[in-house]
Write a structure and sequence with these properties.
Elements lengths: L10 E3 L9 E3 L29 H5 L20 H14 L4 E8 L5 E7 L4 E7 L7 H15 L3 H9 E6 L4 H5 L9 H7 L12 E2 L13 E2 L31 H17 L4 E8 L4 E2 L2 E5 L2 E4 L21 H18 L9 E3 L10 H7 L3 E8 L2 H4 L4 H21 L7 H5 L16 H8 L6
Parallel strand pairs: 5-6, 5-9, 9-14, 12-13
Antiparallel strand pairs: 1-2, 3-4, 4-6, 7-8, 10-11, 12-14
The structure holds zinc ion.
């Protein structure tokens, strides 16, 4: 791809009352160059390491918080076209360090790209925006790839020597463009692609009625994050439909199939995929368990499926399954955020996502069964509840966590982290949103039998 335009955006919070809640975009060309000196997590503005005027409003738990879907501005986020320009630019300025490749296409034909950087033996796969209304992860991944591919610091060099990062930002571009959770695919299209499914009923994760403010009636789609199967060579069989949240998925969505293909390719190349990170958002109104006056900035987790030693269906995966390593990775994320919170307290509002999950149809569940250390980020607020509010801060928080993870793996320090520290991360407190909230996250968990309070 040819370099077209520099679109890097720098954001500043403005201290004008409620206007401070919205980040303001500066024009292309005025963005500060990435810092080449600091060993701290890089940022487009070093001031992001310090508390911002809008942090207090972000963290102050207000009873007016609501997950009721509404239309809010989202143009600050990187859309599909902008992502193409950004990845093109990063590939160019990295002088060959970053390799951008189209790895698949969405159901509506949009490109799905991977950005690969580093030559190390440990592979870290990261994906974002599998739910198209969960957008911060994409911006954080673009920042991470750019820094790793362009920084001249010893730290970045070490990352490049020890790690191979493969990022697939915006892996569900159709859902992202529609700004909704599901992809854009009808059951009839699935059947056309897989003729053996003629006569089968749609999978349980097929949306064809309105939900969270989105009209799936006229444009149905699937929760792509229930379409994975730990058997990476699985072919859809009619008797496996409609399935359920306790069962594996089918790879009927081109988006999940694309990520699966990348994962298999990395397995073939490296033997195993050391670490897998998936970046999500949760409801906007969860509070800290020990301080109901403070909102949760993000929740993390390293547990997605039942222990294979306790479940006969998973027996073949028992050997590679390593929950301790997933816990250590999460500890690295949390330690980095707690350290950053010394200067910017809002970054320390980290909780543990509900545990006891058994969701083999999620990317995290399927890849964890295949032996990867797995990390979930659940960033505060989806677009239907927060829009682009706090984008810069939440991108920063995500970035800091990812930076801590990458550094701990690159240095090998992750092996020394105490998994018990994971269990000591405070559990997510309750949501104080309005009673009629449409919290998809909680609904999904309840359907999986998890007590979410
Ligand atoms: Zn999600």
């Amino acid at each position: 791809m040819r370099l077209r335009a520099r679109t890097t955006r720098s954001t500043v919070a403005v201290g004008l009352g409620t206007a401070a809640l919205l980040a303001v975009t500066t024009l292309p060309g005025s963005a500060a160059p990435p810092s080449a000196s600091a060993d701290a997590p890089p940022a487009w503005s070093s001031s992001l390491a310090a508390a911002q005027p809008s942090d207090a409003a972000f963290a102050a738990a207000a009873p007016t918080c609501s997950d009721t879907p509404r239309k809010l501005p989202i143009n600050e986020f990187t859309d599909h076209r902008e992502l193409a320009v950004e990845l093109d630019r990063i590939e160019e300025v990295s002088g060959g360090a970053v390799d951008v490749e189209q790895v698949g296409r969405s159901n509506r034909g949009r490109e799905i790209w991977s950005a690969r950087v580093g030559t190390g033996e440990k592979v870290v796969l990261m994906t974002s925006e599998i739910h198209g209304n969960e957008k911060v992860g994409t911006d954080a991944l673009v920042d991470l790839v750019e820094w790793m591919g362009t920084s001249t610091t010893p730290k970045a060099q070490r990352w490049r020597d020890e790690l191979t990062l493969v990022a697939i930002p915006k892996m569900n571009p159709d859902g992202a463009e529609l700004d909704r959770r599901g992809n854009d695919q009808t059951w009839a299209e699935v059947q056309a692609r897989h003729p053996q499914l003629r006569g089968a009923e749609p999978s349980w994760n097929y949306y064809d009625t309105p939900r969270t403010g989105d009209d799936y009636g006229s444009a149905p789609g699937f929760d792509t994050n229930r379409d994975y199967n730990p058997d990476l060579s699985y072919v859809p069989q009619p008797e496996d439909f409609p399935g359920s949240s306790e069962e594996a998925g089918w790879y009927v969505t081109p988006e999940a199939s694309t990520v699966r293909d990348v994962y298999r390719g990395l397995q073939a190349e490296f033997g195993e995929v050391d670490t897998y990170v998936d970046l999500h958002h949760q409801g906007a109104c969860y509070v800290m368990p020990d301080d109901p006056e403070q909102f949760v900035t993000l929740s993390i987790s390293g547990q997605f499926v039942a222990d294979p030693s306790t479940k006969p269906e998973y027996a073949e995966y028992a050997e590679g399954y390593d929950l301790e390593y997933s816990k250590q990775l999460n500890v690295a994320v949390n330690q980095a955020l707690q350290k950053a919170a010394e200067r910017r307290p809002v970054l320390g509002n980290v909780t543990l996502y509900p545990q006891g999950l058994d969701l083999p149809g999620t990317g995290l569940g399927s890849f964890q069964l295949n032996g990867s250390g797995a990390v979930l980020f659940e960033i505060r607020g989806q677009t239907q509840s927060l829009g682009q509010q706090y984008r810069a801060m939440l991108t920063r928080a995500t970035y800091v966590g990812l930076d801590g993870l990458m550094t701990s793996v690159a240095t090998g320090r992750v092996a020394d982290l105490d998994p018990a520290e994971y269990d000591a991360i405070p559990p997510r407190g309750p949501s104080i949103g309005s009673a009629e909230q449409a919290d998809e996250d909680a609904r999904v968990l309840r359907s999986a039998g998890v007590d979410v309070g």
